[in-house]
Design goal:
Elements (H helix, E strand, L loop, with lengths): L7 E8 L1 H5 L4 E6 L6 E7 L2 E6 L9 E3 L8 E4 L5 E3 L4 E4 L8 E6 L5 E7 L19 E7 L2 E6 L2 E5 L13 E2 L7 H6 L3 E3 L10 H8 L7 E4 L9 H4 L6 E4 L5 E2 L4 E7 L8 E7 L2 E5 L17 E4 L19 H26 L3 E4 L4 E2 L6 H6 L5 H11 L3 E2 L7 E3 H6 L7 E2 L14 H10 L10 H10 L6 E7 L12 E5 L15 E7 L2 H7 L7 E5 L4 E4 L9 H6 L2
Parallel strand pairs: 13-15, 15-16, 16-17, 21-22, 22-23, 23-25, 28-30
Antiparallel strand pairs: 1-10, 2-3, 3-4, 4-9, 5-6, 6-7, 7-8, 9-10, 11-12, 11-26, 12-13, 14-24, 18-19, 19-20, 20-21, 26-27, 28-29, 30-31, 31-32
């Protein structure tokens, strides 16, 4: 049953009358000396707006934007995202997010209060104290990537089953060899949670195998703006029991088991995370969320799992020319991976789960055409993250292997219990060394012959639907073979995003220019409605660079890459 949530008010910052009198026009930075938290207050005559000094992307700190002559924008020190504080809208990337505003109130002495209106933590509704767990009562078995099989009393729950086939066309493949009985484990599940629509979590090849045996298996997804199963009918997979549930509401499975799906603070339209509670013991799975639940999460849960690896973006592996030397790329990748490790370690330190497990990062670019990407796109080592966590806290860490099982009761009682984690038998194959490329490449190649591509009208229809315009960018799209040579009879056209036109030649005005060579654009348009960044040459007034084989992430992939 859904519960109403009472709103509460929290005072984040109090400015004295003298501090209020000294406010300057434009941007003002403040820090609460008691909490160490930072805030931004914007003054325009008698109008005041305020927000937390925290970027929505990855929680970076804003500083004054020296390129802003109007004194209205701030720049994030992490990835150069920019926020117009006068409107509370992000301007880099453009048309993306709005910053959450704080309430500004004057007190009785002409001082000023910054207030945050908060609902109580939804997982605290109808709280349940942890009860005794018998050995073997709660067991978590790792299958592959982000897929976990949870035994919770007499119920079984599975997370994000990607167990066969590729993800993102043919860009990602499983690093680990799933247990040979993975399909039986799926069929025995009482319910499945799928976090979001990306194909390393929503795997139609996997679900097709499952649907052939259990089409009515209960599957639960969050009520995201972009439906998780938006492409179900076109996929041909016959699933008949998909349940879309609201955010922040406990879903009762039985008297001992319930779960709650929460949205991501950065991508609430798509990403979700989940809290599973059995007899008062919570398991938190943040999956791919950049800022799960806006940064508000339960502390001291029994088990927390999250992504860790990095490497989902094609930048900068797919760029060359200008500053993008191999040395520059290597240093950039090293720095970014270190930032991610530190962020995850800090999050775990703040939340203090009893046990932490890094997962959802065990993929590999195994197709021969992606050899360079595989060699360049270095991922984080889960053991390195676990070692970093153990330096700063007493959190128990678990690096999972396919088929390994964690007994929650044993590990909570005695982390040194030899039966707390049961590893797969000796000789079990851990890493995949072969992938069945053939059937999936056949589907890719067949897309070229689809009748929709017989007529060039699809080009205008697609880009009009995508709605990306009013940006001084011209893109040349060139359809190619796997070796990036022009496809015989393939499309070759220009798109001017300033007015969303399709000129025969580049305009004479100064503009950013890209050459985008896409080997698999046809299939991606048919199955996802997305155009990926293929072989991309961007010519700015001072820079030239090339990008190829960037996996599709959203309709705004062009825009997001420009803002990296």
């Amino acid at each position: 049953m859904e519960q109403s949530i009472e709103q509460t008010t929290e005072i984040l910052l109090h400015l004295s009358p003298i501090e209020v009198a000294n406010l300057k026009e434009g941007i003002n930075f403040f820090r609460n000396k008691n909490t160490g938290k930072d805030y931004i207050l914007y003054k325009n005559k008698n109008h005041l707006r305020a927000c937390k000094n925290m970027c929505k992307h990855q929680g970076g700190l804003f500083i004054k934007d020296i390129e802003d002559l109007d004194g209205r924008s701030v720049r994030c020190t992490k990835h150069n995202w920019k926020l117009d504080v006068s409107t509370m809208k992000y301007i880099n990337p453009p048309s993306s997010f709005c910053q959450d505003e704080l309430v500004v109130e004057m007190d009785e002495e002409n001082g000023l209060l910054l207030l945050e209106l908060n609902p109580p933590n939804p997982w605290d509704s109808e709280p349940r104290a942890p009860e005794h767990l018998a050995f073997g009562e709660v067991q978590i078995t790792y299958l592959a990537h982000a897929c976990m099989d949870l035994k919770l009393g007499d119920k079984r729950m599975v997370f994000d089953p990607w167990l066969i086939g590729p993800a993102f066309a043919r860009g990602w493949w499983l690093l680990h060899e799933p247990p040979s009985d993975w399909l039986e484990k799926l069929c025995q599940a009482d319910l499945i949670y799928i976090s979001h629509m990306h194909s390393d979590h929503l795997s139609y090849p996997t679900l097709k195998k499952l649907a052939e045996r259990r089409p009515d298996i209960p599957i639960y997804v969050g009520n995201t703006e972009r439906p998780v199963f938006w492409n179900l009918n076109q996929s041909g997979v016959q699933l008949t029991n998909i349940n879309v549930v609201p955010f922040g509401i406990w879903q009762q499975v039985d008297k001992n088991l319930r779960f709650m799906i929460l949205m991501d603070g950065i991508h609430p339209e798509m990403d979700t995370c989940i809290i599973v509670e059995y007899k008062g013991h919570k398991i938190l799975n943040t999956v791919d969320c950049t800022r799960p639940n806006g940064g508000r999460l339960p502390e001291k849960v029994a088990l927390m799992m999250s992504d860790f690896a990095g490497g989902a973006s094609g930048f900068p592996m797919t760029f060359s020319g200008g500053k993008f030397t191999e040395e520059w790329k290597a240093e950039f990748i090293k720095t970014e991976r270190k930032k991610l490790l530190n962020y995850k370690a800090r999050l775990v330190k703040d939340l203090q789960p009893r046990i932490y497990c890094p997962f959802a990062g065990y993929f590999v670019e195994s197709h021969p055409s992606d050899k360079y990407i595989k060699e360049t796109n270095i991922k984080n080592d889960p053991n390195e993250l676990n070692n970093l966590i153990k330096k700063n806290s007493d959190v128990i860490t678990w690096t999972p292997r396919p088929g390994a099982t964690l007994d929650l009761s044993r590990m909570l009682k005695d982390p040194t219990d030899s039966k707390g984690i049961i590893e797969p038998p000796n000789g079990t194959k851990i890493y995949k060394d072969s992938w069945d490329f053939g059937p999936y490449l056949k589907v890719l190649n067949a897309a070229v012959e689809d009748e929709i591509f017989l007529h060039s009208s699809w080009i205008k229809e697609y880009f009009t639907w995508a709605g990306f315009k009013d940006y001084n960018l011209v893109v040349r799209m060139i359809e190619t073979n796997e070796d990036f040579s022009p496809f015989p009879g393939g499309y070759d056209y220009l798109v001017d995003f300033l007015d969303l036109s399709f000129p025969k030649e580049r305009p004479s005005r100064e503009h950013s220019y890209e050459e985008n060579m896409v080997p698999v654009v046809d299939l991606l348009l048919l199955q996802t409605g997305w155009v990926p960044l293929g072989l991309l040459q961007i010519c700015h007034p001072t820079t030239s660079l090339i990008c190829f084989q960037t996996p599709p992430r959203s309709k705004l992939s062009l825009l997001q890459t420009l803002c990296l």
